[in-house]
Amino acid sequence: MRKFNREIKDLNEITELIDGCDTLRVGFNDEGCPYIVPLSFGYEVIDGAFVFYVHGAKAGRRHELAAKSELVCVEADVCKGFVTLPSGDQTADYRSFIGKGTIESITGDEAVHALTALCRHCGFDTMHCTQAVVNATCVEKITVKEFTAKQRFK
User: Fold this and answer.
1) Non-local CB neighbours of 111 within 8 Å, separated by 6+ positions
2) What is the CATH number of domain 4-149?
3) What is the pLDDT of residues 24-65, one digit of tens each?
């Protein structure tokens, strides 16, 4: 990070940032070229690490890439708009999160928990996922222990 004065260090502030995001971008290594997938997500914080939950089809390119390497990068951001500074320059009023982690498929009760967290994050507080839904979906957990967050304005 170039401008450390914009770094968000407080875990509660980072959690608030992520609460305001509706898309998690997951980056995979595709033979030296990034392959990025935008996904709906749920998450929780466990022992200072962000644990993201995503889901999708049971087959496809991202699954092939995850099978080659469990290492991923994630990004989420919120742009509140664009502003003109007193100097006349323009800039974005943003908050962003970037992290490195690992991805793994999960099943059973852990997958039900993950999908419930995902539904909650997406605004469905009373929705619960059944085993039938889990069986029709590939559910994955991304554990992110190394991360940074920053914002343009406080």
Assistant:
1) 134, 137, 139
2) 2.30.110.10
3) 999 999 998 999 999 999 999 999 999 999 999 888 999 999
* Structure tokens that stand for 58 in this block: 């049971």
* Token representation of residue 1: 């990070």
Neighbouring residues of 80: CB distance < 8 A, sequence distance ≥ 6: 93, 94, 95
pTM recorded for the entire structure: 0.90
The encoded tokens of residue 82 equal 């664009």
Phi, psi of 70, deg, nearest 5:
-80, -10
pLDDT digit string, tens, across residues 61-93 = 999 999 999 999 999 999 888 888 889 888 888
CA distance 122 to 47: 23
3-state secondary structure the chain: CCCHHHECCCHHHHHHHHHCCCCEEEEEEECCEEEEEEECCEEEEECCEEEEEEEECCCCHHHHHHHHCCEEEEEEEEEEEEEECCCCCEEEEEEEEEEEEEEEEECHHHHHHHHHHHHHHCCCCCCCCCHHHHHCCEEEEEEEEEEEEEECCC
Residue 117 contacts residue 40 (beta carbons within 8 Å): no
Residues 17 and 8 sit within 8 Å (Cβ to Cβ): yes
